[in-house]
Amino acid sequence: MTPRLFCLVSERDDLSLLPALADAGVDGFQVRAKSLATGALVALARRVVAAVRPAGALVVVNDRLDVALAAGADGVHLGADDLAVADARRLAAGLLVGATCRSRAEVLAAASHGADYAGFGPVFASGSKAGLPAPVGVAAVTEAAGVLPLVAIGGICAETAGDVRMAGAHGVAVIGAIWRHPDPLVAAKELVAAVA
């Protein structure tokens, strides 16, 4: 089951809040810490799994199938330069496999290779990751919907999450909307309500 609300997590975030975020209804967490060495990334992923699984939330690891398997995570999210979706599906048939997509054609390709969902975006401008392409906009969500569950990402907050869902997204993924909010728990509750 693809989560409605993914919260991306790195080693820089306040991990003590994870159980409360999961209890508030954040049903997916993506571990994304590109600068960590493999051992530290496995340790981080294990910590996230232990913190949120009691509430029933799922955990995927960004880029690294090996880390997802070692940490006992529920899935992996793969970008264009990562392990191919078809290879991940073959190696880990039981895991949730997500693929980064920016167009309907990419969503169709991801589906044909065995992806379970598409991380779609950036929908809006975002300051959370350097080097992102231009935002695709809400209309692109509508155009790409209906092939795989779309998890929209990029500049999404509680005020825009509902619009993205109405446009056809299954759910959303956020970083700053939770972690840069003065009260991450309040922000999470607002986002949960917006994607319900």
Automatic annotation (TrEMBL):
Amino-acid positions noted as binding 2-[(2R,5Z)-2-carboxy-4-methylthiazol-5(2H)-ylidene]ethyl phosphate in the UniProt annotation, renumbered to this chain: S126, G127, S128, G155
The enzyme's E.C. designation: 2.5.1.3
InterPro entries: ThiamineP_synth_TenI, TMP_synthase
Cofactor dependency: Mg(2+)
Key words of the record: Magnesium, Metal-binding, Thiamine biosynthesis, Transferase
Pfam families: TMP-TENI
Superkingdom of source: Bacteria
Recorded metabolic or biological pathway in which this protein acts: Cofactor biosynthesis; thiamine diphosphate biosynthesis; thiamine phosphate from 4-amino-2-methyl-5-diphosphomethylpyrimidine and 4-methyl-5-(2-phosphoethyl)-thiazole: step 1/1
Binding-site residues, Mg(2+): D63, D82
Domain named Thiamine phosphate synthase/TenI: residues: 11-178
Similarity comment: Belongs to the thiamine-phosphate synthase family.
The protein, known as: Thiamine-phosphate synthase
Species the sequence originates in: Nocardioides daeguensis
Organism lineage: Bacteria, Bacillati, Actinomycetota, Actinomycetes, Propionibacteriales
Gene for this chain: thiE_1
